[in-house]
Amino acid sequence: MVCEEELLIEKVCGLYEQISSLESLKPCKNVDMLFTQLVLTCIPPSPIDVTNLNKNVQEIRSHLIKLCGEAEGHLETHYSTLLGSYDNPLQNLHIFPYYSNYLKLGLLEFTILTQHCTHVPSKIAFVGSGPLPLTSIVLASNHLPSTTFHNYDMDPLANSNAMRLVSSHPDLSNRMVFHTTDILDVSNALKEYEVVYLAALVGMDKEGKNRIIDHLAKHMNPGALLMLRSAHGARAFLYPVIEPCDLRGFEVLTVFHPTDEVINSVLIARKYPVPMHSLDQGLASKILPNKCSEIQAFNPLNHGNMIEEFAIEEQL
């Protein structure tokens, strides 16, 4: 058991050495090969808990997540530019190598959403939509044909690339709105959305991620849903991890850890209908420690693809 974990860490660290010595992370044969190896190393279900790693490996992990984020940004920009050169970009999305993953993730997130949303949301915000806003496109095209998607990204170039993909589409060009701004500068507008998605790579470290979650908790409408992406087991070498106890001001409804090629775990939470300050004083401290310990007991190796539900009412 320990041996298997040590082999995994050794392999990940070896790949980190090679990736961190690359001159550029833009798509090319060598970059693609190294990241493919890294993903294939981290995908198999593993009992590894990245919070227990030694300091050196922790630092390697946080650097690796940043490198993965940078490489993913280059990959999306590359394919967004390529797709933008077609007459009908949206008919050619299959050329993006991970498109099938987005189809699966979109279906998964929509399924989880329908379990907690009593009606079809009219407005959804996606924070960190990037140059290739595939989640918004998949949800808008396949699952939510009447919903308007407000895509937020700080990078004006990412937004102009993304707009080019949908501008020629008669339906999506009307239902996909793009905002070039830092989500921390958005307050009143957040009250308009029934669902807010937070992309996996928004807030690359714990501190940054928590600052954004706290901002959303402060400004989202009470009762609105927050959909987040996290990582579990060895996949936490690729993406930041969100623990349910990080979601102050939210009731955690579902935590789901895929065991297939969909890499990201999915969390959905509902903003409490009570003001934040009363949470800080009592309710949260009563609930969240229990929720954390209960959720940590969830082992995807035993449950396969089972969705776990947590109801706060039961604990109260």
From TrEMBL:
Superkingdom per UniProt: Eukaryota
GO process terms (BP): nicotianamine biosynthetic process
Family per similarity comment: Belongs to the nicotianamine synthase (NAS)-like family.
PROSITE patterns, A to Z: NAS
InterPro entries (UniProt xref): Nicotian_synth, SAM-dependent_MTases_sf
EC numbers, comma separated: 2.5.1.43
Gene it is expressed from: LOC106756794
UniProt xrefs under Pfam families: NAS (PF03059)
The name this protein goes by in its record: Nicotianamine synthase
Function: Synthesizes nicotianamine, a polyamine which serves as a sensor for the physiological iron status within the plant, and/or might be involved in the transport of iron.
EC top class named in words: transferase
Keywords annotated in UniProt: S-adenosyl-L-methionine, Transferase
Reactions mediated catalytically: 3 S-adenosyl-L-methionine = nicotianamine + 3 S-methyl-5'-thioadenosine + 3 H(+)
GO molecular function, one term: nicotianamine synthase activity
